[in-house]
Design brief:
Helix content: 40-55%
Order of helices and strands: HEEEHEHEHEEHHHHEHEHEHEEHH
Strand order of the largest sheet: 9-8-10-7-11
Number of strands: 12
Shape: rod-shaped
Number of domains: 3
CATH topology of the largest domain: D-Maltodextrin-Binding Protein, domain 2
Radius of gyration: 35 Å
CATH class of the largest domain: Alpha Beta
Number of helices: 13
Oligomer: single chain
Distance between the termini: 78 Å
Structural class: alpha/beta
CATH architecture of the largest domain: 3-Layer(aba) Sandwich
Length: 364
């Protein structure tokens, strides 16, 4: 006789299997009674906390739009640093991180990102104007091009001095008296002639010697003029544009960055040791005080702080370092990832998104 009980158990498991699979369907997550915990931190203009405790900003607006459409219940939990925000997501303390998180390989290993909603890069802020500084002058005078120009002039003076000495040593007592005395006198004459100082009756007396002297005097005028124009141009450009004009200049100055951010990682990758600060405002205050020469930080965030509190003392360069993308972050294999990714793409392709970006940044 066949037992009915095992057949009943197998049948029950077979029938309940689809029910269990359906309950795990990501489309049904979160449950209606579930309140999502959203981690965030202040990162203007993406996430800003008002005096009344209400949150606003580009990322916050995007999250609210998606959550309202999907009828999700949620609450914001604030943290102070980016590492805290990442740790909260990796430990599933937060269901979603909504702030100004950039997608990086290191972060992708420990959490998942949705589709990107904003593309930008790192910006460089430098002091605007300010008192005259000897730093640009010293930088120009110690540059390799300046040393090359000086050595070229000295080389020409030595070469012409040697030629004049060879032509005059037997016919002109001013260049006679042995190799050391005659050659040094000849080089001294070419140097004085190059600088257009008075030389009196001291100089070549033979026709070949005077021909060389005439060519040297004319040529030295042109050489000195080119040299002077080049130095003046270099000093003027550096004084107008500052010591930092591009990424390569950062290796020779004091650079500030916010601790635990992508900017710090990028600078260290470029073999630049930044002076670290707790907040971008602290870094900009140090820049204004002259304690550092540049600040590297996420460009839209840096632009926001400059526009709000440092517009007259700090300027943002056009240079963009290390292009990157912003996105929401969720725990690994979170069922929210797919839903959020699709919702982000829908929202960012709508006219509403362009209006939101313009409202917070002044550009589309």
């Amino acid at each position: 006789m066949v037992s009915v009980r095992p057949i009943f158990i197998v049948t029950a498991l077979f029938l309940c299997g689809p029910c269990h699979a359906q309950s795990a369907d990501p489309a049904l997550f979160p449950r209606p009674d579930r309140e999502l915990v959203i981690g965030t931190k202040e990162a203007p203009p993406f996430a800003m906390k008002g005096s009344d405790g209400a949150w606003q900003g580009i990322s916050i607006e995007l999250w609210r739009r998606i959550a309202d459409e999907k009828k999700w219940r949620y609450r914001f939990v604030e943290v102070q640093t980016v590492p805290e925000l990442i740790d909260g997501v990796t430990t599933s303390k937060f269901d979603v991180a909504v702030a100004a998180l950039t997608i990086t390989p290191a972060r992708e290993r420990v959490l998942d990102f949705t589709a990107s909603f904003f593309s930008t890069g790192l910006g460089i802020a430098v002091a605007a104007g300010g008192p005259p500084s000897w730093r640009p002058v010293m930088t120009a005078l110690t540059s390799f091009s300046f040393v090359q120009a000086v050595l070229a002039l000295i080389g020409l003076a030595l070469a012409v001095g040697l030629i004049v000495w060879l032509l005059e040593r037997r016919h002109n007592e001013d260049f006679g008296g042995g190799v050391a005395r005659g050659l040094s006198s000849s080089v001294w004459w070419t140097t004085v002639a190059m600088t257009q100082r008075g030389i009196g009756n001291f100089g070549p007396r033979t026709m070949p010697g005077r021909a060389v002297a005439m060519l040297w005097m004319v040529g030295s005028i042109i050489a000195i003029a080119v040299f002077t124009a080049g130095i003046t141009s270099a000093l003027t450009v550096r004084q107008l544009q500052g010591t930092v004009r591009e990424i390569a200049d950062l290796s020779a100055v004091r650079v500030g960055a916010v601790t635990g951010t992508t900017a710090e990682d990028v600078l260290r990758r470029l073999r630049i040791r930044p002076v670290t600060f707790a907040t971008p405002k602290d870094a900009l205050l140090a820049l204004r005080a002259g304690n550092i020469d540049a600040v590297v930080y996420d460009r839209p965030l840096l632009a926001w702080f400059v526009r709000q509190d440092f517009q007259s003392s700090v300027q943002l360069l056009d240079t963009i370092v290390d292009f990157q993308n912003y996105a929401f972050a969720v725990p690994l294999n979170s069922p929210l990832r797919k839903q959020l990714g699709v919702a982000v793409l829908d929202a960012t392709e709508s006219p509403w998104w362009g209006e939101t970006i313009f409202r917070y940044t002044g550009s589309k």
